[in-house]
Design brief:
Elements (H helix, E strand, L loop, with lengths): L1 E2 L2 E10 L5 H6 L9 E11 L9 E7 L5 E2 L22 E2 L5 H4 L5 E8 L8 E8 L7 E7 L2
Antiparallel strand pairs: 1-2, 2-3, 3-6, 3-7, 4-5, 4-8, 8-9
């Protein structure tokens, strides 16, 4: 889908089990506390237009009760973390050839922590709100997540 001149693709959404060696590679932080679960949403963002564009987007997950969840900050050294950066024509996040690009998840990680009861309030939707400039009105699109 296109939001504020950039194309966004959600590749996969999955619960992260930090006792699993693959999942530890995606995120090296603490496990979810009792009663909570960590979910990774792996996205690809591309500039399909000419010129430079910066992803001025915010990501939120909303359940069917109207509860909203925001991504957790990720450690600076996390090579899978979604980090917005100015994109030239045909450039993407994650960058071609990077670990995040080449991994089975195929995207950059947005990490969310949910209370486990919220996972029953399906469907869960990812809201992508973006702007073409800091002063432009936001455009918002929704993607139903397969959780």
């Amino acid at each position: 889908m296109t939001v504020a001149g950039l194309s966004y693709n959600v590749f996969i959404t999955r619960e992260l089990n930090l006792r699993d060696s693959e999942d530890r590679g995606y995120y090296s932080g603490p496990e979810a506390p009792p009663g909570f679960a960590l979910y990774g949403v792996f996205v690809k963002v591309c500039n399909d237009k000419y010129g430079f564009r910066s992803p001025l987007a915010q990501f939120t997950i909303e359940d069917n009760q109207g509860n909203r969840f925001h991504p957790l900050p990720l450690p600076a050294g996390d090579v899978f973390a979604y980090r917005p950066e100015r994109l030239s024509h045909a450039a993407c996040i994650p960058e071609t050839g990077s670990a995040a690009y080449s991994a089975p998840t195929g995207g950059a990680l947005l990490l969310f922590k949910f209370p486990t009861p919220a996972l029953e309030n399906r469907p869960l939707e990812l809201l992508i709100s973006g702007r073409t400039s800091p002063t432009a009105p936001p455009q918002t699109k929704r993607v139903e997540l397969d959780i």
